[in-house]
């Protein structure tokens, strides 16, 4: 059976708007910072929050944190949450990852403890809220930098600076005392008559 084109076009246009809406069960939006910097040996919080088109409960939400090293394309599991937190029991993150989120506040953050340089890389935050399972993941690039410490040059510079400061203080005190003594001795000298005049008066 042949249908005129003027009857088919409305159906195609309607299908273009309706079909995507039917396929999409819902949508999850995830929010993370683009990059985080931490000092070697300190703790750092990886912030991840989400919104969902479905009601949120502790039983409905699952969270997966994964790690992608800078020198490798394979992902490693960092943390998992389903009803309760499941910290890693094996691998580089054992004893280093703890739960810092609150499901009812749409917060699925974790904290990495005592981070070493090997934690440099990308962290992927994945959230699913059944039946809302569609949406992109959040990614955070963690940069671990060296500890801020005084180098030998800094220590030497501080020692020289301190010595100069002490010398300047002592010099200032010396000048002040000398000025003070000179100022108080000048009036006595003016009141005392010259020596030759005093001798002449004695002879008379």
Structure commentary:
The chain is an alpha+beta fold and 204 residues long. The protein is 33% helix and 28% strand. The protein has three helices and eleven strands; from the N terminus they run H-E-E-E-E-E-E-E-E-E-E-E-H-H. The chain has helices spanning 5-23, 152-191, 195-203, and strands at 28-31, 35-39, 44-46, 49-52, 61-69, 76-82, 84-86, 97-99, 110-112, 121-129, 138-145. The strands form three sheets. It has a six-stranded mixed β-sheet with strand order 2-11-10-5-6-7, with no helix packed on it. Strands 3-9-8 form a three-stranded antiparallel β-sheet, with no helix packed on it. Strand 10 and strand 11 form a beta hairpin. It is elongated and about 100 Å long. Residues 1-25 have low confidence and may be disordered.
Question: How are the SSEs placed, and which strands pair?
Answer:
Elements lengths: L4 H19 L4 E4 L3 E5 L4 E3 L2 E4 L8 E9 L6 E7 L1 E3 L10 E3 L10 E3 L8 E9 L8 E8 L6 H40 L3 H9 L1
Parallel strand pairs: 2-11
Antiparallel strand pairs: 1-4, 3-9, 5-6, 5-10, 6-7, 8-9, 10-11
């Amino acid at each position: 059976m042949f249908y005129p084109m003027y009857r088919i076009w409305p159906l195609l246009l309607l299908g273009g708007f309706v079909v995507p809406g039917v396929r999409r069960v819902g949508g999850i939006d995830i929010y993370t910072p683009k990059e985080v910097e931490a000092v070697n040996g300190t703790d750092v919080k990886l912030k991840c929050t989400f919104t969902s088109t479905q009601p949120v409960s502790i039983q409905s939400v699952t969270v997966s944190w994964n790690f992608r090293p800078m020198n490798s394309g394979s992902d490693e599991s960092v943390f998992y949450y389903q009803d309760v937190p499941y910290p890693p029991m094996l691998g580089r993150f054992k004893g280093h990852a703890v739960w810092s989120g609150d499901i009812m506040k749409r917060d699925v953050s974790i904290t990495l403890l005592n981070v070493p340089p090997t934690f440099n890389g990308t962290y992927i935050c994945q959230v699913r809220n059944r039946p809302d399972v569609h949406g992109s993941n959040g990614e955070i690039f963690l940069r671990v930098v060296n500890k801020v410490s005084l180098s030998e040059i800094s220590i030497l510079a501080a020692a020289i600076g301190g010595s100069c400061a002490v010398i300047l203080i002592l010099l200032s005190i010396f000048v002040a005392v000398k000025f003070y003594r000179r100022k108080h001795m000048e009036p006595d000298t003016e009141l005392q008559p010259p020596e030759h005049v005093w001798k002449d008066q004695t002879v008379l």
